């Protein structure tokens, strides 16, 4: 049967219901608002050495702790079902921000009476194993967020997170003075990775040996996970040859496995301003 479409009409009440439904659906899929964390970072984090490192004004963070607590309370309200409706980039940005905000929160529990985050937890404890951050329906430790939700899920396969999650230490990659967002995540991860590898105090070629941060030893498997076609550590590092200051010949040697890789020391002192 042929239907004359010109005679079909949708009642105004139905149109209103459809519009409201679309708005609710859009809100459900919207990225989380990280503006509170973003403002704390822009106010209290100073990029140094051309963006290759940063220092944190923990005294300033302490003064603004109610804002930090409010941000973590808001992130703690996100349910697993809502989280699952976000894009992968939105999810990962959320987890990185929660990890970093949680790290600052943990430092503030002892600040200013600590020289390193490793002072938290005592001789037999670990700051990274304390369950204190509400994430996706339960209290979690920083280790749980990083190694289970981010690395262990198998969902993201993103080795560059190691230059985004911050351990409150000088040896750690810089804490960015912006919050991570789903819409800019790839650009932000590329920025922090390139900047970190360009820091010759932590990554440098010495003769025929490439000395890099022990991060590449601790998490070597992540850099050999076929991320964007890179199947070994040498391949990952070769992608950032310009940041490392390698010429074409040195890059070719690295790709061919002719370059010895060694590891620099790690400075666990607090990244305090």
Protein topology:
Blueprint: H1 12-29, H2 35-44, E1 45-48, E2 53-56, H3 58-63, H4 65-75, H5 80-84, H6 88-108, E3 133-135, E4 138-140, H7 142-150, H8 185-197, E5 204-206, E6 209-212, H9 215-218, H10 233-239, H11 241-244, H12 248-255, E7 260-263
Parallel strand pairs: 6-7
Antiparallel strand pairs: 1-2, 3-4, 5-6
Helix pairs in contact: 4-6, 6-7, 10-12
Largest sheet: 3 strands, mixed
Number of helices: 12
Overall number of strands: 7
Radius of gyration: 22 Å
Helix content percent band:
40-55%
Beta percentage is: 5-15%
Return residue spans where pLDDT drops below 50 for at least 5 consecutive residues: 1-8, 13-28
- List the strand order in the largest sheet: 5-6-7
Termini, distance in Å?
A: 76 Å
Element order, helices and strands? HHEEHHHHEEHHEEHHHHE
Kindly report the oligomeric state of this protein: single chain
Could you say which structural class the secondary elements and strand pairing correspond to?
A: mainly alpha
- The mean pLDDT is 91
Principal-axis shape equals: globular
In short:
This protein has 273 residues and is mainly alpha-helical. It has helices at residues 12-29, 35-44, 58-63, 65-75, 80-84, 88-108, 142-150, 185-197, 215-218, 233-239, 241-244, 248-255; strands at 45-48, 53-56, 133-135, 138-140, 204-206, 209-212, 260-263.
Keywords:
273 residues; mainly alpha; 12 helices; 7 strands; globular; disordered N terminus
């Amino acid at each position: 049967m042929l239907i004359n479409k010109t005679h079909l009409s949708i009642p105004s009440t139905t149109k209103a219901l459809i519009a409201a439904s679309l708005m609710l659906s859009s809100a459900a899929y919207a990225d989380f608002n990280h503006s509170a964390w973003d403002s704390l970072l822009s106010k209290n984090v100073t990029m140094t050495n051309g963006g290759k490192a940063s220092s944190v004004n923990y005294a300033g963070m302490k003064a603004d702790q109610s804002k930090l607590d409010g941000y973590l309370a808001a992130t703690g309200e996100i349910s697993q079902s809502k989280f699952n409706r976000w894009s992968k980039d939105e999810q990962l940005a959320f987890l990185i921000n929660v990890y970093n905000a949680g790290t600052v929160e943990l430092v503030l529990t002892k600040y200013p009476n600590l020289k390193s985050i490793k002072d938290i937890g005592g001789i037999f404890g670990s700051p990274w194993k304390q369950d204190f951050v509400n994430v996706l329906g339960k209290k979690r430790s920083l280790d749980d967020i990083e190694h289970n939700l981010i690395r262990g899920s198998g969902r993201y396969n993103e080795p560059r997170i190691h230059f985004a999650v911050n351990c409150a230490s000088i040896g750690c990659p810089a804490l960015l003075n912006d919050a991570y967002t789903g819409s800019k995540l790839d650009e932000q991860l590329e920025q922090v990775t390139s900047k970190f590898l360009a820091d010759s105090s932590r990554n440098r070629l010495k003769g025929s040996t490439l000395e890099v941060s022990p991060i590449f030893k601790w998490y070597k498997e992540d850099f050999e996970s076929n991320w964007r076609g890179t199947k070994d550590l040498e391949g990952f590092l070769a992608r950032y040859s310009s940041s490392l200051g390698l010429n074409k010949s040195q890059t070719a040697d690295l790709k061919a496995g002719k370059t010895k890789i060694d590891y620099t020391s790690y400075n666990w002192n607090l990244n305090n301003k």
